[in-house]
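Protein in question passed on here:
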Amino acid sequence: MLRVLLLTLSVVAIAHAELCKPDAQNAFKVRLSIKTALGDNAYAWDANEEYLFKAMVAFAMRRYSSKSTTQISNVLLCNVTDRVSFWFVVTDSSKNMTTVPGSEVEAAIRMNRNRINSAFLLSDKTLQFLKITSTLSPPVEPSTPVWLIVFGVVLCLIVAGIVFLVVAGIQQRKK
């Protein structure tokens, strides 16, 4: 019994090492610039922050795929450095030995990017997912439609022209 348990733990450790290679197919590199973003109010990156990151990625995966049962334990962080950069990979919850396709992880991160940034008080420039392009904010819609502004300007020019012609005609008659 002990041998089986030991063998299972060693297989899981080997699988974790295989999944966590920096150049793995579905691995994503993350860089954080906490000091740049927050200055003197910067917080330290520790195990609690890593847990929050894992939770936010699991949240993004669950929101992206409503049938997904991604847990925090399915998000693996690898090669965490002191300057706060690391690789992460998301494993499939049904089979812990395989990873979720990178396209799904990318789509989930892009869909929930603002929530992830808000959780760490960072922006797209200070929380970088290197393989995932930044999402553009939606274009700002003015409260007044553009056509209405153009119509108003043209109408004002026509009214001003008519008033000018009437005033000029009255002045010529008086002469």
The longest strand covers residues 85-90. The longest helix spans residues 146-174.
